Amino acid sequence: MPQLIASVEGVEIKHVHLRKDRTTLGRRPHNDIVFNNLVVSGEHCVFELEGLVDVYVEDLASTNGTYINGKMIKSRQLLHDNDMIAIGNFRIQYLSASEDSGYHETAGMKLDGHAAAAAGATLHASFQVLSGSSAGLEVPVVKAVTTFGQPDVSVVAVSHRRYGYYVAHMAGEVQPTLNGQPIGADAVPLAHNDVLELAGTSMQFLLKDS
């Protein structure tokens, strides 16, 4: 069964199976999927199920647009497995069918993001800037979700979850890397001394005892 996995800054917030012929998304409460955020229009877009597996998405003349894999859609468009839909800072992954148990385990781990500041945590996280005029500067990571970068270049979100810290690419055309590996919209775990490259700036992730 086709499904949508919605997340904000790497944290899963909604999981919807597309059972209806027409599923609407928007800010107003009458929609099937409601995102109560000003970047979302009252009636933002619609998902239409044709047959058993074909799902089309259409933007409903929204203010901020609907994007698929980084490109704004201009007309009704067929979705493909693992397409990533972006509406403001919301990310919606499209899956053409239910996944195996491996997916559900991953989804369970993502849901732990709601318990972002785990009780009894003994480590303090920070980023130390390694390059540029701010080299040596140490920036603490104290919130449940912290963003770094420039919106028109590249932005990442660092989330503090029950089992550690995670980073995900949120916006911008310049793709960040972690230890030389590209970072996408799916959050990846951070480890002590990992090096994040963000639009030409190198930052080292540090975990220190309290």
Low-confidence stretches: 98-121
Class from helix and strand fractions? mainly beta
Return the average pLDDT rounded to an integer. 82
Strand order of the largest sheet: 2-1-11-10-7-8
Helix content: under 10%
Shape descriptor: elongated
Please summarize the sheet with the most strands.
Answer: 6 strands, antiparallel
The fraction of residues in strands falls at over 45%
Q: What gyration radius follows from the Cα positions, in whole Å? A: 18 Å
DSSP, total strands: 21
Give, in order, the helices and strands.
EEEEEEEEEEEHEEEEEEEEEE
Give the distance, in angstroms, between the N- and C-terminal Cα atoms: 47 Å
Q: What's the multimeric state?
A: single chain
Helices, by number, come to 1
Textual characterization of the structure:
With 210 residues, the chain is mostly beta strands. Helices cover 5% and strands 48% of the residues. The protein is built from 1 helix and 21 strands. The strands form 4 sheets. It has a 6-stranded antiparallel β-sheet with strand order 2-1-11-10-7-8, with helices on one face. The protein has a 6-stranded antiparallel β-sheet with strand order 13-12-21-20-17-18, with no helix packed on it. The termini are far apart. Residues 98-121 have low confidence and may be disordered.
